[in-house]
Amino acid sequence: MNFKLLSLAVSGILTVGVAASAAAVVTAPLGASEADLTEFNSVHGQGAIAQNVEEQTNIRVYEKASPAVVTVDTDKSNGSGTIISPDGMVLTNAHVVSAGGTVNIILSDGRKLVADVVGFGEEGLDLAVVKIRNQNNLPTIPLAPPGSVKVGQQAFAIGNPFGQFQGTFTVGIVSRIDLQQGLIQTDAAINPGNSGGPLLNSSGELIGVNTSIFTRGRGGGSIGIGFAISADKVPAFLTAVREGRAPRVAQARSPFGNKSPEKVPLNGPAVSGKLTDKSSVLPTDNSFFDLYSFEGKAGQEITIEMKSQEIDAYLILLGPNQREIAQDDDGAGSKDARIRVRLPADGTYTLVANSYEARQSGAYTLELKASAPTEPSRAILEEEGALAAGGPVLPSDNSLYREYTFEGRSGQSVAISLESTDFDPYVAIFGPNGRLVAENDDASDSTKNSFLTVTLPATGRYRVIVNAYDASGRGRYTLTVR
Fold first, then answer.
1. Do 317 and 304 meet the contact criterion of CB atoms below 8 Å apart?
2. Does residue 299 come out as left (phi exceeding 0), alpha (psi in the -120 to 50 range) or beta?
3. Contact in structure between 344 and 455 (CB atoms under 8 Å)
């Protein structure tokens, strides 16, 4: 089964360079003799020279730009940002600082400073500016000339993936330019925590603001399809910020733009629809989609089926907080999709009727069935424990963890909650084959507790990992698997 996620690259939402080339001149040392030149050319063959040129370009871009790349740290998440003025204006994504107010900025030299959120983009533009207090003469990154970006040119990303690796540098190319959406696609690795950081050209100029990735699999890592907001959209936004016209509160934002979903009842008649070139388009893969919404209750078990003889059906279900709950490609057999899940909360759910392939057109039917709300199901696991010094540690980030197992069956729906008042919990579940099935940091924008609903893909023993979001996490927790 394949998965596609509309993943904002914010640290904690998900867990998860590329060779580049450049045109440059390499010369032998001045005053070298013919013998010296022969020796130079024998040691520095064409492959070695090309690699040295690439390395020199990489090093030059990093050394020029990295001092102006910062970490943007909030209570709920962290991302990256670019200093764009010597007095401390930092450009980042709106979704990184959506709560507004004050945030913490960590400079490349490790200094921690306080900044105020001073403006947000309008009409779904995922940009924001924060202003560092009481600073002057900070390093900056200039904007690239408008319209200068070309497909095939080198692209460089700098940021803080997973909130733990500040100053990480990745290299790729501009893979595609979406003029309609104002997005630059790149294969430079962009991961959670890179949100708001710069995408650069080989002159160290800002060509885009990294914002999201397209990925497959519940691990949610980079597969070489990342997106940055074109820097061509930045000047007008900065002017609005400087003139005090930019919103001071984050605007409602959805990966589906301003499209309003069609309301459908649970247990109602099947809905007929058709994806065409008049339909809305997902910017991540250029596939058509229709939006639906329904009212759900905590504990309801729902089954959603999308069937078609003309397209490869794909379903994505979002919860009341617009976070993904489930998605499916071929779960109903053939090319039909099916989602079966127990709803975690009361509220309005959003359903995306989509196609697996880009720009597929065709008719489909959609059917939503639901049971009556029930009391929480029987607990498979109920564990209380503590993360304490001396316990097992994940080598990737030195965070503490504990591991539990349970037997599951294919198609079984389970809900996993991890709660703590002492630290920021992080939970993950691995299947019988050892592969990651799902993971979560924050159940919603209002809590740091973790929650997952998962349809188990196979019968066998599953491992649940109780983890702290970072290496400082210590304290008591409660794990429940139902």
1. yes
2. left
3. no
pLDDT digits over 214-240, tens only? Answer: 755 444 555 678 899 999 999 999 999
Sign, CA torsion 60/64/65/66: positive
For residue 380 the two structure tokens come to: 């498979």
Nearest by Cα to 280 from 181, 176, 349: 181
Instruction: Residue 261: count other Cβ atoms within 10 Å of its Cβ.
Output: 18
The Cα–Cα gap between 9 and 96 comes to: 9
φ/ψ (deg, to 5) at 293: -140, 155
Tell me how many degrees the CA angle 248-97-181 measures, rounded to the nearest 5. Answer: 85
pLDDT of residue 212: 84
Dist. CA 307–CA 313, nearest whole Å: 6
- Give the single-character DSSP code of 110: S
Tokens of 104: 């913490």
pLDDT confidence tier of residue 2, bands split at 50, 70 and 90: very low
Kindly list the catalytic residues.
95, 126, 195
Give the DSSP H/E element, type plus range, for residue 369.
Answer: strand 362-370
Give the three-class secondary structure for 37.
helix
Cβ neighbours around 323 below 10 Å, total: 14
pLDDT tens, position by position, 31-40: 334 444 444 3
Question: Which of the 8 DSSP states describes residue 97?
Answer: S
Q: Assign 463 to helix, strand or coil.
A: strand
Prediction pTM value: 0.58
| Contact in structure between 253 and 94 (CB atoms under 8 Å) | yes
Pairing of strands 288-296, 262-263: parallel
Q: What is the 3-state secondary structure (H, E, C) of 384-434?
A: EEEECCCCCECCCCCCEEEEEEEEECCCCEEEEEEECCCCCEEEEEECCCC
Identity of residue 195: S
The torsion angle over the Cα atoms of residues 309, 311, 312 and 317, rounded to 10 degrees, is -100
Alpha helices in 199-353 (DSSP H): 234-242
CB atoms within 10 A of CB 388: 11
Pairing between strand 154-159 and 112-120? unpaired
